[in-house]
Known about the structure:
Layout: E1 2-6, E2 11-21, H1 28-40, E3 47-50, H2 53-62, H3 70-83, H4 89-95, H5 98-108, H6 120-143, E4 150-151, E5 174-175, H7 178-183, E6 201-208, E7 214-218, H8 226-232, E8 243-246, E9 249-253, H9 262-268, E10 273-280, H10 293-305, H11 310-335, H12 337-340, H13 344-361, E11 365-372, H14 388-411
Parallel strand pairs: 2-3, 2-10, 3-6, 10-11
Antiparallel strand pairs: 1-2, 4-5, 6-7, 6-9, 8-9
Amino acid sequence: MLMYFDLSRKKITTIENVLVLQGGGSLGAFGCGVYKALVKHHLDLDLTAGTSIGGINAAIIAGSRNKDRTDQILEEFWIELSENFVNKDNFFSFSCSNLIKQFYENFVYPLHKNDMNASYVEMKKAQHIKIKQIQSFYSSAAFGNEKFFKPRWFPEYAVSDPEYFTPTKWTYLYDHQPLIKTLERYVDYDKLRPGENSNPRLILTAVSVLDSKALIFDSFKQQIEPKHILATSAYPLYNFPWIEVDKGVFAWDGGLLSNTPLREVLDASPVMDKKIFLVENYPKEVDALPGNIAEVHHRARDIIFSDKTEHNITMSRVITRYLDFIEELYQIVEDNADKLQLDKNILSTIHRKYKKYHEDHGAEIKDIYYFSRDEMYPHIFENADFSPDTIKELIRAGEDKADKVIQDHKQE
C-alpha cells in the first residue's frame, strides 16, 4: 500500500495494489504466470479478487502457507493438477479413429480462408494442436481429474450418493470436493479471516441460485472457508453442483454474473485509490472473424466472459471528480458560513452527507494493467484442457505477457 500526494486533488492519497483474476477453467494457469511476473517485479498486493478458477488462484495467493514463496506454491498447484490429467491412449485410439479425425479436420477445424497468409505447415500445425486439445477435453469429461473433480458416475459414489442409481434426478455430473483436499497443501485458512492484515485481502464472488443476487465473500469481513472456494468455482455449465454457503443460501460460480469482479472490489474498498492488475483469460479483441461454426461459438463464449468493466473504471474517475468538486464547494461555504448566516446544523448535515458519499464512492482507479491472453489456436474447449504441456505453456505465456506489460508501463 502506497501513499502519495495527488496534485490534481491537492491531498495525500492512499493507493492499493489490486489483482483481479477472471474465471476460465484450465486457462487459470495463465493467471499463475502473471502472478509470477508480479512477484518478480516486486509488485506487492494489498487485495486479490477472483471468481471461478480466478477465485481459486486468489485464495492460494492470499492464504499461502509460505508468504515468501507464494508464486512457487501457486505454480506447484497447477503442476499438480496437470500431472493428474488422465491421458487414456486406448480411449483416444477409439474416439479419434480416422473417421472422427476426418470429421474434425473437414468440418470442425478445417483449413479456412483466415489461415491463407500462413504456410501449409503452419496451418496443419494449428489444426493438429486444436484436435489434440479437444482430445484433452474428452479426457477431462470422461475421467475428470482426481485432484480437482471426479465424474459422479464413478463406482466409488455408489454407496455415498443416494441418487447414484437415479440419474434422472441429477443436477450435476461432476463432484469438485476433491479440490478442497488438494488445496489443504497450499492454503492456510487461518490467514483468510478478519484481523490477519499481514496478508492480502481476499474477495471471492458467487451468485445465489434462487434469487440471482451477487454473493461476496470478503476475508476482511468473514472467515473464508473451503465452502466459499467451492461456491465461487461451482460453474453449472461445467456440471458442478451448487454449494450451500449459509442456511438456505445456495451458490453457483460468480462468473454467471460477472467474470471480472472489479465492481465488487470498488464496492468493498471504496475509499482508497487503486492500481489494478487485471488478468483477462478471454480476450476482448481478435484480428479476424470466425471461419466456421466452431469458431463462432468460441468467439461468442469469449465475448460473454470478457472484461466489461470499462464503464466502472470511467465512472469511478467521474464520481471522484464530482466528490472533489463538492468538497471544494463545501469548503467555500464553510469558510463563509457566518457571512451567509447559515444554520450550523444545516452545515453539519451537509458535511455528514458528503462524508458518507465519499466513504461509499471515493476510490479512483489511478492505473490499470491489462494482461490479456493471446489465442494462437482458439477452440471452444480450450478451458477444459489440463494436459501438462498446455498448463506449462499457459504459465509461460502469462509470465511473458505480464513482463511485457509491466515494462511498457515503466516506459510511459
